[in-house]
Design brief:
The chain is mainly alpha-helical. The protein is built from 10 helices and 2 strands.
Amino acid sequence: MPLQTIEPRRLYRKIADQLRTLIREGEYGVGTRLPAERDLALQLGVSRPSVREALIALEVEGLVEVRTGSGVHVLSRETPASARAVEAGVFGLFEIFRARQLVEGEIAAVVARQASVTLLRDLGIVLAQMEADIAAGTLPIEGDRLFHLRIAEAADNGPLLRTVTELYDMRDSPLFEHFGQHFESVDSWRTAVAEHKAVVEALAAHDPEAARAAMQQHLQRSHDSYAEAWPEGVDSDLH
Protein backbone atom coordinates (compact mmCIF):
# COMPACT_ATOMS: atom_id res chain seq x y z
CA MET A 1 0.00 0.00 0.00
CA PRO A 2 1.77 3.18 -1.16
CA LEU A 3 1.74 6.39 0.83
CA GLN A 4 -0.90 8.85 -0.31
CA THR A 5 -0.57 12.61 -0.57
CA ILE A 6 -2.12 14.46 2.36
CA GLU A 7 -4.11 17.60 1.57
CA PRO A 8 -2.39 20.70 3.06
CA ARG A 9 -5.43 21.51 5.20
CA ARG A 10 -5.05 18.21 7.06
CA LEU A 11 -3.20 18.17 10.38
CA TYR A 12 -0.88 15.73 12.13
CA ARG A 13 -3.74 13.36 13.00
CA LYS A 14 -4.36 12.53 9.34
CA ILE A 15 -0.68 11.72 8.90
CA ALA A 16 -0.65 9.60 12.06
CA ASP A 17 -3.78 7.75 10.89
CA GLN A 18 -2.12 6.79 7.62
CA LEU A 19 1.15 5.72 9.23
CA ARG A 20 -0.76 3.77 11.88
CA THR A 21 -2.65 1.90 9.16
CA LEU A 22 0.58 1.04 7.34
CA ILE A 23 2.09 -0.27 10.59
CA ARG A 24 -0.98 -2.39 11.39
CA GLU A 25 -1.04 -3.82 7.87
CA GLY A 26 2.63 -4.78 8.11
CA GLU A 27 3.99 -2.26 5.60
CA TYR A 28 6.38 -1.21 8.34
CA GLY A 29 7.14 -4.30 10.40
CA VAL A 30 7.84 -4.46 14.10
CA GLY A 31 11.52 -3.74 14.71
CA THR A 32 12.02 -1.87 11.44
CA ARG A 33 12.95 1.76 11.11
CA LEU A 34 10.55 4.21 9.53
CA PRO A 35 11.71 6.31 6.58
CA ALA A 36 13.48 9.56 7.42
CA GLU A 37 11.27 12.47 8.44
CA ARG A 38 12.15 14.45 5.32
CA ASP A 39 11.30 11.48 3.08
CA LEU A 40 7.95 10.97 4.77
CA ALA A 41 7.21 14.68 4.37
CA LEU A 42 7.97 14.51 0.64
CA GLN A 43 5.92 11.35 0.07
CA LEU A 44 2.98 12.67 2.04
CA GLY A 45 3.17 16.20 0.62
CA VAL A 46 3.23 17.87 4.04
CA SER A 47 5.68 19.82 6.19
CA ARG A 48 8.31 18.12 8.33
CA PRO A 49 6.91 19.63 11.55
CA SER A 50 3.55 18.00 10.75
CA VAL A 51 5.27 14.65 10.24
CA ARG A 52 7.11 15.16 13.51
CA GLU A 53 3.85 15.73 15.38
CA ALA A 54 2.46 12.55 13.86
CA LEU A 55 5.53 10.54 14.85
CA ILE A 56 5.37 11.86 18.41
CA ALA A 57 1.66 10.98 18.54
CA LEU A 58 2.49 7.43 17.47
CA GLU A 59 5.22 7.31 20.11
CA VAL A 60 2.67 8.34 22.74
CA GLU A 61 0.47 5.45 21.55
CA GLY A 62 3.35 3.01 21.95
CA LEU A 63 3.54 2.11 18.26
CA VAL A 64 6.97 3.66 17.60
CA GLU A 65 9.96 4.90 19.54
CA VAL A 66 12.41 7.67 18.70
CA ARG A 67 15.82 6.24 19.55
CA THR A 68 18.91 8.35 19.93
CA GLY A 69 21.38 7.37 17.25
CA SER A 70 19.10 5.07 15.26
CA GLY A 71 15.91 6.88 14.26
CA VAL A 72 12.23 6.03 14.65
CA HIS A 73 11.50 2.33 15.12
CA VAL A 74 8.25 0.38 15.06
CA LEU A 75 7.53 -1.21 18.44
CA SER A 76 4.11 -2.76 17.93
CA ARG A 77 1.34 -3.20 15.36
CA GLU A 78 -1.32 -2.46 17.97
CA THR A 79 -1.50 0.16 20.71
CA PRO A 80 -0.49 -1.44 24.05
CA ALA A 81 -3.16 -1.35 26.76
CA SER A 82 -0.78 0.64 28.96
CA ALA A 83 -0.21 3.37 26.37
CA ARG A 84 -1.58 6.88 26.81
CA ALA A 85 -3.97 8.14 24.17
CA VAL A 86 -3.74 11.40 22.24
CA GLU A 87 -7.34 12.56 22.55
CA ALA A 88 -9.22 13.65 19.46
CA GLY A 89 -9.63 17.23 20.69
CA VAL A 90 -5.92 17.87 21.23
CA PHE A 91 -4.58 20.57 18.92
CA GLY A 92 -1.16 20.28 17.34
CA LEU A 93 1.71 21.83 19.26
CA PHE A 94 2.65 24.14 16.38
CA GLU A 95 -0.93 25.40 16.04
CA ILE A 96 -0.93 26.24 19.74
CA PHE A 97 2.31 28.22 19.48
CA ARG A 98 0.99 30.19 16.50
CA ALA A 99 -2.20 31.04 18.38
CA ARG A 100 -0.27 32.09 21.47
CA GLN A 101 2.02 34.25 19.35
CA LEU A 102 -0.93 36.23 17.98
CA VAL A 103 -2.84 36.56 21.24
CA GLU A 104 0.01 37.13 23.68
CA GLY A 105 1.87 39.49 21.37
CA GLU A 106 -1.10 41.84 21.32
CA ILE A 107 -1.65 41.48 25.06
CA ALA A 108 1.98 42.44 25.70
CA ALA A 109 1.52 45.57 23.56
CA VAL A 110 -1.60 46.57 25.52
CA VAL A 111 0.04 45.93 28.89
CA ALA A 112 3.15 47.91 27.94
CA ARG A 113 1.10 51.09 27.84
CA GLN A 114 0.14 50.73 31.49
CA ALA A 115 2.68 48.34 33.04
CA SER A 116 2.77 49.05 36.76
CA VAL A 117 5.67 48.90 39.18
CA THR A 118 3.88 46.04 40.92
CA LEU A 119 3.63 44.01 37.71
CA LEU A 120 7.30 44.54 36.89
CA ARG A 121 8.27 43.56 40.43
CA ASP A 122 6.15 40.41 40.27
CA LEU A 123 7.62 39.42 36.92
CA GLY A 124 11.12 39.92 38.32
CA ILE A 125 10.29 37.59 41.21
CA VAL A 126 8.98 34.97 38.78
CA LEU A 127 12.12 35.17 36.64
CA ALA A 128 14.33 34.84 39.71
CA GLN A 129 12.43 31.69 40.70
CA MET A 130 12.79 30.29 37.18
CA GLU A 131 16.54 30.87 37.33
CA ALA A 132 16.68 29.17 40.74
CA ASP A 133 14.82 26.16 39.35
CA ILE A 134 17.19 25.94 36.40
CA ALA A 135 20.21 26.15 38.72
CA ALA A 136 18.72 23.25 40.68
CA GLY A 137 18.31 21.22 37.48
CA THR A 138 14.52 21.58 37.45
CA LEU A 139 12.62 22.68 34.36
CA PRO A 140 10.82 25.90 35.38
CA ILE A 141 7.45 25.16 33.79
CA GLU A 142 5.42 26.47 36.73
CA GLY A 143 7.30 29.77 36.62
CA ASP A 144 6.88 29.99 32.87
CA ARG A 145 3.12 29.54 33.20
CA LEU A 146 2.95 32.17 35.94
CA PHE A 147 4.99 34.64 33.85
CA HIS A 148 2.60 34.45 30.91
CA LEU A 149 -0.52 34.54 33.07
CA ARG A 150 0.71 37.57 35.06
CA ILE A 151 1.03 39.55 31.85
CA ALA A 152 -2.40 38.40 30.67
CA GLU A 153 -3.92 39.37 34.03
CA ALA A 154 -2.46 42.87 33.67
CA ALA A 155 -4.56 43.41 30.53
CA ASP A 156 -7.60 43.39 32.86
CA ASN A 157 -9.73 41.43 30.41
CA GLY A 158 -11.32 38.20 31.60
CA PRO A 159 -11.86 36.56 28.19
CA LEU A 160 -8.25 37.22 27.20
CA LEU A 161 -6.96 35.80 30.48
CA ARG A 162 -9.09 32.69 29.99
CA THR A 163 -7.79 32.32 26.43
CA VAL A 164 -4.15 32.57 27.47
CA THR A 165 -4.72 30.17 30.37
CA GLU A 166 -6.44 27.59 28.18
CA LEU A 167 -3.82 27.85 25.43
CA TYR A 168 -0.96 27.49 27.91
CA ASP A 169 -2.57 24.57 29.71
CA MET A 170 -2.89 22.67 26.44
CA ARG A 171 0.73 21.73 27.03
CA ASP A 172 -0.59 19.43 29.77
CA SER A 173 -1.09 16.58 27.32
CA PRO A 174 0.81 13.39 26.41
CA LEU A 175 1.71 14.87 23.01
CA PHE A 176 3.28 18.00 24.50
CA GLU A 177 4.93 15.93 27.25
CA HIS A 178 6.69 13.70 24.72
CA PHE A 179 7.83 16.70 22.70
CA GLY A 180 9.29 18.10 25.91
CA GLN A 181 11.18 14.90 26.59
CA HIS A 182 12.90 15.20 23.21
CA PHE A 183 13.41 18.94 22.91
CA GLU A 184 13.37 20.68 26.30
CA SER A 185 16.50 21.00 28.42
CA VAL A 186 18.06 23.25 31.02
CA ASP A 187 19.86 25.08 28.20
CA SER A 188 16.69 25.67 26.20
CA TRP A 189 15.01 27.04 29.31
CA ARG A 190 17.94 29.39 29.97
CA THR A 191 17.31 30.80 26.50
CA ALA A 192 13.61 31.15 27.29
CA VAL A 193 14.36 33.10 30.48
CA ALA A 194 16.57 35.51 28.52
CA GLU A 195 13.69 36.02 26.09
CA HIS A 196 11.34 36.65 29.03
CA LYS A 197 13.71 39.33 30.28
CA ALA A 198 13.49 41.07 26.90
CA VAL A 199 9.70 41.16 27.29
CA VAL A 200 10.02 42.68 30.77
CA GLU A 201 12.46 45.31 29.52
CA ALA A 202 9.99 46.36 26.83
CA LEU A 203 7.15 46.50 29.36
CA ALA A 204 9.28 48.61 31.71
CA ALA A 205 10.03 51.00 28.84
CA HIS A 206 6.29 51.28 28.13
CA ASP A 207 7.04 50.45 24.50
CA PRO A 208 4.08 48.58 22.95
CA GLU A 209 5.85 47.77 19.68
CA ALA A 210 8.91 46.40 21.44
CA ALA A 211 6.76 44.40 23.86
CA ARG A 212 4.76 42.87 21.02
CA ALA A 213 7.91 42.01 19.11
CA ALA A 214 9.67 40.53 22.15
CA MET A 215 6.72 38.30 23.03
CA GLN A 216 6.18 37.19 19.45
CA GLN A 217 9.87 36.46 18.98
CA HIS A 218 9.94 34.43 22.20
CA LEU A 219 7.01 32.26 21.12
CA GLN A 220 8.34 31.96 17.57
CA ARG A 221 11.66 30.70 18.91
CA SER A 222 9.82 28.23 21.11
CA HIS A 223 7.93 27.05 18.02
CA ASP A 224 11.14 26.81 15.99
CA SER A 225 13.02 24.91 18.69
CA TYR A 226 10.58 22.03 18.23
CA ALA A 227 10.48 22.32 14.44
CA GLU A 228 14.07 22.74 13.28
CA ALA A 229 15.91 19.56 14.22
CA TRP A 230 15.72 16.44 16.30
CA PRO A 231 18.03 16.44 19.32
CA GLU A 232 21.66 15.71 18.56
CA GLY A 233 22.31 12.02 18.24
CA VAL A 234 19.07 10.98 16.56
CA ASP A 235 19.65 9.36 13.15
CA SER A 236 21.21 11.98 10.87
CA ASP A 237 18.68 11.11 8.16
CA LEU A 238 16.08 12.80 10.32
CA HIS A 239 17.89 16.14 10.45
